[in-house]
Design goal:
- By secondary structure, the protein is mostly helical.
- The chain has a domain at 89-133.
- It has four helices and no strands.
- The chain has helices at residues 2-8, 64-118, 121-131, 165-180.
- It is elongated.
């Protein structure tokens, strides 16, 4: 009951210097109410800045180093182009040779089958042994090879002859002339 009496007497605005009159915007008694202007306020324009006029520097002389660099780049570009052309031609040759190898393997298979059909090995063996020109090996003539030990191989390599710089340049020029010739 005492709590209910305290809530009725509670006024949140009692310590505030003004009284609440039901409006969120209060009107001052001694001052006039301000009305909005009809025209918007225009900002003054600032003076536009002008860029200072700059004199253009005259063109310099052509450097020998720059000319040499451009020439080197041009030579490298031509060399790369020639390498690509050479790589393309070699790739075409490889494709042609691979197709030729596939065709030759098919021919080998058919020729091997024809060869086996042409000769009867049993009849040839009986004919040669009957003539006496061929005989079966005797037990003393048989030799067995022991392959349990590891093999040893000596491989001799050919010395590679390396071309000097001038020989390589001469070969490149020859390739270029052969391509365009």
């Amino acid at each position: 009951m005492a709590a209910a009496a305290r809530q009725k007497n509670f006024d949140p605005y009692r310590n505030v210097g003004y009284a609440y009159e039901g409006s969120a915007a209060r009107v001052l008694e001694q001052e006039e109410v301000l009305q909005p202007r009809t025209q918007p306020r225009v900002r003054p324009r600032h003076a536009q800045l002008e860029r200072p006029k700059v004199e253009v520097r005259p063109a310099g002389k052509l450097s020998l180093f720059a000319v040499t660099g451009f020439a080197a780049v041009a030579v490298m570009a031509v060399m790369i182009l020639m390498s690509v052309v050479q790589l393309t031609s070699l790739s075409d040759q490889v494709v042609a040779m691979e197709s030729q190898i596939a065709q030759l393997k098919r021919e080998e298979t058919t020729l091997t089958a024809r060869y086996e059909m042409a000769y009867d090995l049993g009849a040839i063996e009986s004919a040669v042994t009957a003539e006496g020109t061929m005989s079966r090996p005797q037990p003393g003539q048989t030799i067995y090879v022991d392959l349990t030990e590891p093999d040893n191989v000596v491989l001799y390599q050919q010395e590679e002859t390396s071309l000097g710089f001038f020989e390589q340049v001469e070969e490149w020029i020859g390739n270029i002339l052969a391509y365009f010739g």
